[in-house]
Known about the structure:
Number of helices: 12
Distance between the termini: 36 Å
Largest sheet: 10 strands, mixed
Amino acid sequence: MRLPLVSVVLPSYxxxxxLPNALRSIAEQDYGNLEIILVDDGSSDDTGEKVAQLxxxxxxxxxxxxxxxxxxxxxxxxxxxxGEFIAFQDSDDTWDSRKLSLQIRALQAHGxxxxxxxxxxxxxxxxxxxxxxxxxxxxxxxxxxxxxxxxSFISCQSLIVRKALLLEAGLFDEALPRLQDWExxxxxxxxxxxxxxxxxxxxxxxxxxxxxxxxxxxxxAAYIILEKHAEDFHRHPxxxxxxxxxxxxxxxxxxxxxxxxxxxxxxxxxxxxxYPAALRALYLRR
Length: 286
């Protein structure tokens, strides 16, 4: 069976120290039919020199002259990709060497176009597997939209998508400061079933300066997504209340009381504050 070409898109901004490990984890895949597209998003460090020293033959280096954000960098990479499928990596994370081969095999077995795998998130020295074992995400190919609307269990680095579907869905929303992987996956899942592999094939390291730690970005992203997917949330008010509750709790942790209260009021407007759901939700990451 012919193996499709996979383009791996990796945005990077001032990550010269961690970038080599991320790139090696792609280059050392046991799946050989791939290209790596590194989009340097206007870095001011020695990213270019570090990349050149690696001498990875599959690597294509693109550069934004000005920093435009990770979503714009991913979209630049997608536009330049030659692959039938697009996979994503981040500059401070690593892949299991079997990641692409297992995902392509699963896609071929199910006749699918979108696949994701479990991943390990490392934050403050603690390792958490996502989706958590009790989150009832079954392996195989299924309609995931309803479950995904209640909170994301997919990260960019765990995702592989047929390029034609990304173009159809409209790529990453460059207005989103966070939760961009969740929002894109909502659009994909609304149209297509997704193949899930329960092996944790990605390690996501949350660094001290990661945007994951910036609650203001999370709050802004939540409001954008609530408006962008207003019809879906209107049909699924529980999911909307879960989103508002979770972001409210995160805002409260960061002493953003007014924002927290506004989000809790919005959760009530959707039908109630879902505290048990808040403890389960998994999307408060990227």
